[in-house]
Structure formats: C-alpha cells, structure tokens
Design goal:
The protein is of the alpha+beta class and 921 residues long. It contains 14 helices and 45 strands. Bound molecules: beta-D-glucopyranose (BGC). Residues 481-482, 487, 491, 493-494, 606, 784, 789 line the site of beta-D-glucopyranose.
C-alpha cells in the first residue's frame, strides 16, 4: 500500500499553560479539568484552512476511556471534555480535527501524538510534614543540609502504575533516589511569595525505584526562602530553618498495593560538603566533607546523621507549580583566557549570561583552594566588581586530594561574562586551566522560545540578540530587574514595560501568570497597592515605608497591563478573570488621587526612570515630569480596564470605567494640553505617551504633537531622550504619525545615548543605563549600574510589530495584522512567531523599486495585510486598505522607492554637526 502523507498535522495536546520546556509528553496538573490546545502544520498548498470540529480521545488507568467529538472552530484552550480527573488516575489524551480550506474542500488530520496527564493530589491528600534540624540560628547564612530516608519496597516488582514524588522545601533543593538525580530542575521550588503561595514539584519516579532497600536524599540550601535579599542585607525573611517536604506514593493496581513514604521524624539530616550556598555571595564547596553514597543504599552512608524535627507547616497555600521549572538550558565554552593587570587569570566567556560554572574533572592536593569571582565587565584591566555592590558572587572549591568530577555550584547563580580564577592557572603542571577545562551553564526558566527577528543590518540583529540574552538572564523563576548585584528582585515596572516583547520571544504565559497571582496576593495585604517588588521583600525593610508602601504609576500599573498583554499574546480570558479583582483594587483603591481624580501630585513618581539626562546618582530625575507620566498611564489603564470589563461581560463596570476615562481625559486635556495642541511635557517621552495612548482631544492637536515630536527628536540629534516610560513607545509613536524615517534614524544612531551605542562598546546584553559603560571604558559612577537589565530592550517590540510587521489583531493571534514599515538602510527583514495555532512568519525585501513580502499565516487563523503603499499615518487618518487573507503562504509586491537621505538634525550652533548623509552608501 502506498503511504499517504497527511496534508494536515496537529501537535500533541498542550495542557493549560504547562509548557514544560522540552518535555511536553507527561504533564502534572493541579487542575482536574484542564483546558487543551493544539497547533497545526500543513503540507502542500493549503490556503484558508479553518477547523470545523475536533475529536479528543482519553484513555488510561483510573479514568474512564472517552471519545468526544465537538463541532467547533476553537483549538486554543478548549474545555476538558471528559469526566474531571481524579488524583489516582493518569490518562493519555490525543486529538484529531476536521476542517475545510478556502474552496470548501475537506482537509482532516490524523490523530496527534499523545500527551499524558496526571492530576495532582488535593491538599488534604498530602500528608507529609516539613522537617528540618533541631538547630536554630539567628544570624548569618544557613549551612545547607542533607536529608536522608531509607525505605523498603516489598511488593514492588518494577510494575507500579504510578510512583510519584511530590516535593518542596524551605529553601531550594535537589532530590535524589538511589543516588540518581530526580528530574533536572535547579533552584526548585523557585521563588514565589512564600507567605502566600508555596509550590511543590511532582516527578514520575517509577524508573528510579527498585525492589528492596531504597534511599531518598535531599539537599537543601537557603535560596530565596532564608537567604540574604535586597540591599538592606535582610536574612531569614521567611524563616531561619531549612526544611524539606516530600511525599512518595507508589501505586500498583494489579496487586492492590500502595506505599506511601512521607517526610517525618524517621528521616535523618546531616551536613554535606557545602559550607555555605548563597544567592548573592556564592557557594563554597569542601570536598573533604563530602560523603560518598550519602543518597544511596550503602552501609557506610548510614553514619553521621541526626534525627530530624517536624517544623511548623507553611501558612501559605501549598500548590502545584504552574510555571516551567528553572533548568540549565545551555553550556557555553570560554573564548579566551586573559591575565588581569594585577596578574590574575581571567576567563572570558564572550557572553554576559546568568548561570554557573562547570568543571568536568580536576584533582588537587588536600586543602588546596580554588576561588572563582564573577563579574559582567572588566574595568581598567581588572574584574569590574563595583556594580555587584555587596554581592560577593564568588564560588570556591577546597580539595581533598581525590579526583573531583562534574563540579558545579548547586544552589546559586551569578550574572557574569568574566571569571577571575585564583588557585588554578594555565601554567599549572598538572591539570592546567585551559579553554577546554571549564564551561558555563546558562540557567533560566525553561520556557519555549517562540519569537525570532532578523534583518539586513548586523548591528540591529545584535541589538535583538542582546535583548533575548537579557530576557533569559532575568527570567529565572520570576521576572527580575537584574541578575548580578544584591537585588535580582521582581520589580514590577521592569516587566510592565518589557512584557509585550517578552511574550513574543518566549512562551511566558505559565511563568508570568503564576507570578501575577503573587502580585495579587501581596497587593491584597498591602492596602490594594502592589508592592514595588514581588515577592515583596521590601515590606519588612526600612520601616518608614519608603519602599514598602508606596503607590507608583508605571510600576504598579503592571496589574492591568501585564494580564492585558498576556491576553493579547495567548488569548486566555481566564487570566483576565483571575486578575480582575487585583486590577480593580489598584484602580479603585490603590491609586492616590488628587482632587481632580488624576494622581495626587504630592506623590513622588519614578516616572520616566533612567532618562539619559538624569544624573548618575538621581536616576528618577527625568526631563519629563513624573506626575505627567503617571497621569498619562492612569488614562491608559482606565481605558484598558473598560475594555477588560467588557470582555468579561461586566457591562456596568465597563461603562463606569469608560466614563471615568472620558472625565479623566477632559481633566488631562485641561491640565496638560493647550488649545492649540502644545503639551506641557514637550519631551520625547511626554509626546510619545500622549500620541500612543491617544490622549489628544482633536486630530489637529495630535498633528501639532507630531510636529513637536519631530522637533524634539531632531533637536536631540536623534539620540534617545527617554527612560523606562518612553523607551518602549518612542519609535511606535513616530511610526504611528508617519515619521518612520525618524524612528529608523534613532534606531541607527550609534552615539550615546542610543540603542546601538552599547554594541559599539562590545555589549552582549542590554544595559540598565544608556551609558552603563562610558565611552572611555569606565563603569558609570552611579551605584546602580547593571549590564543586564531588559527594560531598555523593549524596543524589540517595535522591531517585531513594525519593522518585521506582525502584531495580534485578535487575542492569541486568532487574527493578525501584517503591516511592515520599511525604512532606514534596511533592505530586508524577517520575523517569525510560534503562535498558539502554529508558526506565523513574514519576511520582506526591497529590490529594484519593489517591496516584496512573503507571508505564512497559521491554519485556523486569518490576517489583514497592509502593504507599505497602502499605509497612512494615524494622524492623516485615511483608512488603510488591509487585504484579508486566511491561512497559507502568500507573496505580495508593490512599488517602493526607499528614502535616500537620512533626516537632518536641527542645528544648535557650535553643537550639532550637520552632515548630508544618505541611508545607502
Ligand atoms: C532596579 C530597577 C527598578 C528600580 C526602581 C532599581 O534598583 O534595578 O530596574 O525598577 O530600582 O526604583
């Protein structure tokens, strides 16, 4: 029989937002009716395909076998079709679909691969305890502990239907069964707001158990639970006792066997070779203290253990993890060995990254010590450690004379490109340090990569790549500001501005929607004000409330804007529903309003934080007034809130927010805009906010603003004059009023401050400040200077949506807008996004007076395509002619003569060099 190649394939069903990195085949979920989604791939020329029905097959043990056929075009987050899952069941799910193409021909899929789903126990079925040592300590770092439990599996014959380990810790842990590592997560359970939500992880451990004696070993270090956090040197924020919680359930249905092992006083604890392991300060390993086989069934391992104590149970909700875990996702080899000015050996990995070192094998005499100091940059021939502030970022090994194999710090991470090594050098006679003897392990939350961009200019490609690296470095369990100094906190403003970029580059939904739950819980116990950082470690800091209890626009607006941007990217209305009370709490209670209903101007606002004109030691002193920025945001979030209420069917509330918005817009206009359209905040950020958030009353006023923005950009000689609030939107504002030539001119600027300046200085990540490194190679004198902050990289959203030209028109990319805006010296660009339906890609080139576009629209979606010759700016207000297309691959072409001359700056005498420059040399 001839093999028929199917024309349509569907992926294995995804379970809720459990995108577990590489492994999608077995999913644990805390939801007994999880929603399912699948993506499509077509083969051959199929256009305009849409789904007409789906069929889901459920099979497995402990769960009724079921087949469900539903006439529906929905393929994203469809309701669970069968009986709710039970916690003693594990089942397999697969899907197939029917549909028709544009000409009405039936094109159906075969069955997808299967996903196996296991429902996790309810809280009352988890009967284990948190156990720890009986020692208490009130200051200093807590030495990591090891826990050990031996147990016998009598009936076990390797035929268990289920053997699941549910585990978490007071601290961060690694777990082993019979000497084998369980799973490959690092820094588990990750960082949540431990006083509200403590997550546990589940592992299928069938393959690790054996008949007879078995051993579970767990190593716990302080992590975020008890470690030093924040610049105020706080320790033990959640407790000063490390602990573990573990429950192993082995079920063999045939013999009716069930074995339950839980953490209790029968477990033992002891110290291992880790003398200390801290987030900021690093990990110190003493090989002399290691006990071979500590986590295996061996007699020698039975000594030196003490009895454990039951610790108070967490007051937080104990819940299954919804976010993908943190893993080592890549190994990077060094590119160079250097010698510092003071004669120390320095390893250069060629890339600023987040993670830890790895040494495959090394032997040194007993007592010999190697010390690794990490930093992001070099300054004046030495490791540039000043930006780390109080973080020591140093790991060490003390040897016992035997061969040390596969050493890597276990429970810490650093932000680094350079590592200074003491005690190991390239000239050592035995086991010298070479480029082959050490690697760096890149760590982050293992999300699925979903977005790519490239174009004909290598510097712009580097800018995009650097942004991806900064996102990777700051998506380690929670979205952070920076990964290297004594901070690494969940600053709300940073992810608020970077959210839309992040949601394009990776499947962030599991991680960010998990974090948002903590934002809501923290906010609820905080007078409706979202804390500056979540988890809120600033609450207990500085009793004057300066950081702990301070309402802030831009930062706190994350409660509305991040769920909104997740909804636009992933189409999950449940996220809006879940976060709605938090949004309302902020708008109705948290915001401090003055008499006119806008922000109380007596509140200090960080506003356009890190405007390049702000002095190094006063990063909030922006040229755009903070209250103006706050009010512009207030209008924007009120408008979005009215849209969200409507989507959720809360019509009364939608009307109320719409009215609030109308009134606020009037007040804003009276307060900040002259009748002729001049804006009080006549700056790049002020004008861009008013244009992008549509704050003008009349089109004529908007035209005046566009002209002022043009002036502001030209007066600045095309340099960036924006901070956190203006940077994500300045180029959007310019292109939306037809000034794309200026947007491109700013993009291509190389002098400081600009997006490309750091690249001229060799940057491999996005910097916190426009000039974190000064042109003379010295580090910015401000005490807050990181080389890995994603906020200023938020321009990539414009690269994706405007240069590349793809954005979601309907939530979750059910319908896309394809509207590439060519410009500058670019003669081609390509953008690709793995949507919840399949891959959307768009590439264009400009050749011989023609603009050529190639497009692939995923099955079950549609798009509106606007070619450059049909584009009108918002301000001109002409309707754009979008061409409606269904799924498939298309090519389009139109006439296009690129602008030759680069725009000219407005000369300021003695100041600005005005050159006649062309885009194409
Ligand atoms: C962080 C920022 C943050 C800011 C707000 C800094 O220390 O690194 O990114 O948003 O503080 O004050």
């Amino acid at each position: 029989m001839q093999n028929v190649v199917p024309r349509l394939r569907v992926s294995r069903p995804f379970i809720e937002h459990h995108h577990n990195g590489a492994d999608q085949s077995h999913i644990f979920t805390g939801n007994n009716e999880p929603r399912l989604s699948w993506t499509f791939e077509t083969y051959g020329p199929i256009q305009g395909w849409h789904q007409t029905s789906y069929e889901i097959k459920i099979s497995g043990w402990g769960q009724p076998h079921d087949n469900h056929r539903v006439e529906s075009s929905v393929s994203v987050l469809v309701p669970w079709p069968g009986k709710p899952l039970s916690s003693v069941a594990s089942c397999k799910v697969k899907v197939r679909v029917t549909g028709t193409d544009a000409s009405g021909n039936a094109v159906n899929s075969i069955w997808s691969p299967e996903t196996s789903v296991e429902f996790l126990p309810k809280r009352n079925e988890l009967v284990a305890n948190f156990i720890g040592s009986s020692l208490t300590q009130t200051d200093g770092p807590l030495r990591p502990l090891r826990f050990r439990k031996t147990f016998w599996l009598d009936e076990f014959e390797g035929l268990a239907d289920s053997a699941r380990l549910d585990i978490t810790a007071y601290g961060v842990y690694e777990v082993f069964i019979n000497g084998e590592r369980v799973g490959d997560e690092v820094m588990a359970p990750g960082w949540t707001s431990y006083s509200h939500r403590h997550t546990y992880q589940s592992h299928d451990v069938r393959n690790l158990l054996k008949p007879g004696g078995n051993v579970i070993g767990v190593e716990v270090a302080e992590g975020w639970y008890a470690g030093r956090l924040g610049w105020a040197q706080q320790r033990h924020i959640h407790g000063n006792q490390l602990g573990v919680f573990a429950q192993l359930d082995v079920i063999t249905t045939e013999s009716n066997g069930a074995v339950k092992i839980i953490s209790d006083e029968t477990w033992k604890y002891g110290y291992g070779p880790l003398i200390s392991s801290e987030l900021y300060d690093g990990e110190h390993y003493d090989q002399r203290e290691d006990q071979h086989g500590w986590n295996q069934d061996s007699e020698s391992a039975e000594s030196c253990w003490s009895p454990t104590t039951i610790l108070p149970f967490t007051k937080a909700e104990l819940v299954p993890s919804e976010a993908p875990p943190v893993r080592v996702v890549e190994q990077v080899r060094p590119i160079k060995l250097l010698v510092s000015k003071s004669g120390q050996t320095i390893i250069d990995f060629g890339q600023n990254m987040v993670g830890k070192l790895f040494v495959r094998c090394l032997q040194r005499p007993a007592g010999h010590k190697i010390v690794f100091g990490h930093a992001e940059v070099m300054e004046d021939g030495e490791l540039g450690v000043r930006p780390l502030r109080s973080a020591a970022a140093t790991d060490s090994i003390t040897f016992n004379g035997n061969m040390l194999k596969d050493w890597s710090p276990r429970h810490t991470f650093h932000g680094f490109r350079y590592v200074e090594v003491k005690g190991w050098s390239p000239s050592d006679a035995e086991g010298p340090l070479t480029l082959d003897s050490i690697e760096a392990c890149v760590m982050h939350t293992d999300m699925k990569r979903t977005g790519w961009f490239s174009c004909s200019d290598e510097m712009i490609n580097k800018l995009h790549e650097n942004t991806v690296w900064s996102m990777r470095g700051n998506f380690l369990s929670i979205p952070t500001d920076c990964p290297q100094r004594d901070e690494r906190l969940g600053w709300t403003g940073d992810i608020q501005v970077f959210g839309p970029s992040a949601n394009f580059l990776y499947d962030t939904c599991g991680m960010l929607s998990s974090w948002l739950q903590d934002v809501a819980s923290e906010q609820a116990t905080h007078d409706g004000i979202p804390p500056f950082v979540v988890p809120n470690i600033l609450a207990s800091d500085e009793g004057d409330g300066s950081w702990g209890n301070f309402p802030q626009a831009v930062w706190d607006d994350v409660v509305v804007l991040l769920p909104w941007s997740l909804y636009r990217a992933f189409g999950d209305v449940q996220i809006l529903k879940r976060q709605y009370p938090s949004m309302q709490m902020w708008l109705d209670k948290g915001i401090r309003r003055g008499e006119d209903g806008l922000w109380d101007p007596s509140f200090h606002q960080l506003g356009d934080w890190l405007d390049p004109s702000a002095p190094p030691d006063r990063p909030g002193e922006s040229r755009t007034d903070g209250t103006f920025v706050a009010d512009a945001y207030l209008l924007h979030v009120t408008d979005i809130m009215s849209q969200i209420s409507k989507i959720l069917g809360n019509m009364g509330e939608s009307a109320k927010y719409a009215l609030d918005y109308k009134i606020a817009k009037k007040t804003f206009s009276r307060k900040y805009i002259t009748i002729d359209g001049l804006l009080v905040a006549d700056t790049q950020t002020g004008l861009a906010l008013a244009i992008v958030f549509n704050l003008f009353k009349t089109p004529d006023q908007a035209k005046v603003a566009a002209a002022r923005l043009e002036r502001a950009v030209k007066l600045a000689d095309f340099k960036v004059a924006t901070g956190f609030a203006g940077t994500p939107i300045i180029t959007h504002a310019l292109t939306s009023v037809g000034l794309q030539n200026l947007a491109y001119r700013m993009l291509f600027e190389q002098e400081c401050p600009s997006w490309l300046y750091p690249i001229t200085q060799g940057a491999t990540t996005i910097w916190e400040r426009w000039n974190s490194m000064l042109p003379d190679g010295s580090i910015n004198p401000g005490e807050m200077t990181s080389f890995n902050h994603y906020a200023l990289g938020s321009i990539v959203n414009w690269l994706h949506e405007v240069v590349g030209g793809i954005s979601p028109l309907e939530p979750g990319w059910k319908k896309s807008l394809i509207r590439p805006v060519p410009g500058g010296s670019l003669n081609s660009a390509k953008v690709e996004h793995d949507t919840s339906y399949g891959t959307l890609s768009c590439s264009w080139s400009v050749e011989a007076g023609k603009f050529k576009l190639t497009l692939t629209i995923p099955p079950n979606t549609s798009a509106s395509v606007v070619m450059p010759n049909k584009q009108a700016s918002k301000i001109l207000g002409h309707p754009e002619e979008g061409l409606e297309v269904g799924s498939g691959t298309y090519s389009f072409e139109c006439d296009h003569i690129p602008e030759r001359l680069r725009p000219k700056a407005i000369p300021i005498p003695f100041y600005t060099k005005i050159k006649e420059e062309t885009w194409f040399d």
